[in-house]
Amino acid sequence: MVFPIPHDTTPILEVTDLQVELVTADRVVRAVDGVSFRIGRGETVTIIGESGSGKSTTAMGVLQLLPEDLAVLSGSVKVGGVDLLVDRDAARRIRGRMVSLIPQDPMTALSPVHSVGKQLTGAIRLAGHPRSAARARAVELLEAVRIPRPAEQLDKYPHQLSGGMLQRVLIAIALAGHPVLLVADEPTSALDVTVQAGILDLMLELQERTGIGILMITHDLGVARLVSDRIHVMKDGRFVESGEAEQVVDAPHEEYTKRLLAAVPQLGTFEEVPA
Amino acid sequence: MSAFLSVRDLVVSYGGFRAVDGVSFDIGKGETLAVVGESGCGKSTIARALVRLVTPTSGSIELDGTDIAQLSEKQLRPVRHRVQMVFQDPYGSLDPHLTAERIVAEPLRGRSAADRHREAARLIDLVGLPASALDRRPAEFSGGQRQRIGIARALASSPDLLVLDEATSALDVSVQAQVLALLADLQRERGLTYLFISHNLGVVKQISDRIVVMRAGRLVETGATDDVLRSPAEPYTRALRAAALDPTTMRGRKPRDVVRQLQGAPA
Ligand SMILES: Nc1ncnc2c1ncn2[C@@H]1O[C@H](COP(=O)(O)OP(=O)(O)OP(=O)(O)O)[C@@H](O)[C@H]1O
Ligand SMILES: Nc1ncnc2c1ncn2[C@@H]1O[C@H](COP(=O)(O)OP(=O)(O)OP(=O)(O)O)[C@@H](O)[C@H]1O
Ligand SMILES: [Mg+2]
Ligand SMILES: [Mg+2]
């Protein structure tokens, strides 16, 4: 094992004053402008906020997944006490094993020319399982993410699956590695609400059982309120409000957070027994 | 009033698998029909059939009186610009080599360069992106920004029917509200007709007149949106309704308890 699983007081993830500048041919964008947060054992911390505010860039920065010729990072990102910005090789060693990502974008995360099964068993083998057990484990993982007829799906290619099925394949891949930290960027955005409930249950159950820390990004304030210990509200690269989930959603202090909550489409009640 | 779009007994198969298995519905001109349902139940497949990215196995798709279900590519040419689609996947559906301006103006081939530029700039502004976005390529945008480029492109050819497949799923609720308002404005001004696929029942309630609930390739319930969402008749629709998370109603409850209660869609 590369890192010890942190004991109760060392945070699983501690991000201090992270800045990310994206350098393109004609300009420099400060996508993340000094954010700090920590995730302890068994905790879920969620970033909500404006489209383009830097949420995914924060996630990719934490995991050191931004191309070196694109991103300049400063601050510190400690996983189990090891600063990934200092020990650059550490990120590569732990990714897919102790730290997993559910990316926002299924199609660029999966290769179009390999079957779903091949890509999932690849992740399973990276996590140290023998080849002989990989297919059985793959079926198990697809079952866990509520994909119907899992064995059949393994032979399909990404374009043959629906949007929500692909999203669940990404979740299965992320869970293949027994992570201590899961970074989930919009993990349920393509799921209907009944399947979403199943996935949230799976994540909460895993957290109860293993003490996994979760960094979640979502536009769904209901999901955020449900699963988070703390919520950070992001706008223009910064956190404009941070607090306990209940406080941020039930009694926000900042104007921007209030505006977000006011924009949630209201569904109202329904008759639980058919007329 | 005769329907603007009339779909009858639509079947779409991939190999031997019937992803859409005999679905019928109508949409009137200037109306919004929402399609909701289980992940993998065939919603995107219906969308792809309507814009004829796939050819239906059987059934008819009458658009303003013409059945387009089996038209050849050549026969489809005069119809294509009238039906546009916003794709579920904002990543895979934008050409990574083109600038946002080229992507948005792509349907405007044949117009002058100045015209195309003006129109692309107008559309980019309409979806809430800055003018500087025009020169950038897809990789330089966030998920929600790409989704809005997809919406701008779909609007470029002034379609009569817009098929929106999870078109606001990557937007924060505030930008989503702006996009929904834009769609409502366009509908009022230009009589656009929408087929709106979404997992978000709150959004569906806000935008749609009528709703179709699907499961496993079939239609299980349909009706006026407000009626179906207020008193769903089918067990599956009730399960969907029960699993919708409202941030304001879970005060003081333990996540596991809420989630357990939400689970258990009927088999
Ligand atoms: N490769 C890149 N080159 C230049 N700018 C980029 C690049 N990637 C992202 N950006 C910009 O950085 C900012 C932050 O993007 P990011 O993807 O982190 O946003 P986000 O908060 O995840 O938004 P969304 O909710 O829409 O996914 C955006 O303004 C985006 O346009
Ligand atoms: N090109 C294809 N080849 C084979 N099967 C396919 C193909 N495209 C889709 N399918 C299958 O058809 C079914 C319906 O897929 P579709 O994408 O229409 O679902 P959906 O309702 O849009 O789901 P989601 O809400 O997850 O996006 C799924 O079982 C999927 O695996
Ligand atoms: Mg993002
Ligand atoms: Mg779909």
UniProtKB/TrEMBL annotation, chain A:
Location, primary (coarse class): membrane
Keyword list, A-Z: ATP-binding, Cell membrane, Membrane, Nucleotide-binding, Transport
Pfam families the record matches: ABC_tran (PF00005)
Its membrane topology: Peripheral membrane protein
GO cellular component entries: plasma membrane
The keyword Ion transport appears for this protein: no
Locations listed in the record: Cell membrane
Example of a GO MF term: ATP hydrolysis activity
Entry-linked InterPro entries: AAA+_ATPase, ABC_Ni/Peptide_Import, ABC_transporter-like_ATP-bd, ABC_transporter-like_CS, P-loop_NTPase
Start and end residues of each ABC transporter domain: 13-261
UniProt keyword Glycoprotein, yes or no: no
UniProt similarity note: Belongs to the ABC transporter superfamily.
Identification of the protein by name: Peptide/nickel transport system ATP-binding protein
From TrEMBL, chain B:
Superkingdom classification of source: Bacteria
InterPro entries noted in UniProt: AAA+_ATPase, ABC_transp_ATP-bind, ABC_transporter-like_ATP-bd, ABC_transporter-like_CS, P-loop_NTPase
Any GO molecular function: ATP binding
Keyword flag Iron-sulfur: no
ABC transporter domain ranges (all copies): 5-241
GO biological process, one term: transmembrane transport
Database matches in SMART domains: AAA
Coiled-coil parts of chain: none
Gene3D superfamilies from the UniProt entry: P-loop containing nucleotide triphosphate hydrolases
Keyword annotations of the record: ATP-binding, Nucleotide-binding, Transport
Family indicated by similarity: Belongs to the ABC transporter superfamily.
Protein name per the record: Peptide/nickel transport system ATP-binding protein
Species in which this protein is naturally found: Klenkia marina
